[in-house]
Structure formats: structure tokens, C-alpha cells
# Entry
Amino acid sequence: MSFLLSPLGRVLGSIAVALMLLGLAWVHGYRAGAASERTAVLSRSIDVLRERNKVDDQIKGMDDARLCRALGGMPDECAGLGL
# Structure
């Protein structure tokens, strides 16, 4: 106990407390960053699903020839699909 009350003990104790606080701050920052990244990924996934549903609604009523043309096919390539 007398070591902790000595000048060297106080310095080492202060350094230990400072390192603990820095470690806790790092852990908190890491967790906050991970949570933020998860939120961004989930948000992007929702946007992609909405876009996919919009595209699905657009092409749902197309016949084969019209879908072929919408995807960039040449008219003569797509002509045989609309049997």
C-alpha cells in the first residue's frame, strides 16, 4: 500500500488509469463504428430490394419479345420470340 502512495506509485497508477480509459474509449468507438456500418449495410439492402421490386413490376407484364427489346436485343433477334 505504501508503494501506491509514493510518487512513483502515483505516476504508475495514473498511467494505468489513463490506459484503461483509452482502452474503454477505443472499445466504445469500435462498437459504435460497427453498429453504424451494420445500419448502412441494412439500409442499402432495403434500397436494393425496393429497386428490384420496381423492376420486377415493370417487366412482369412483358412478353418475351418486348423483354428482349427492353434488355437491348436487336429487333431482328427478338422477332422470333413473340410467337
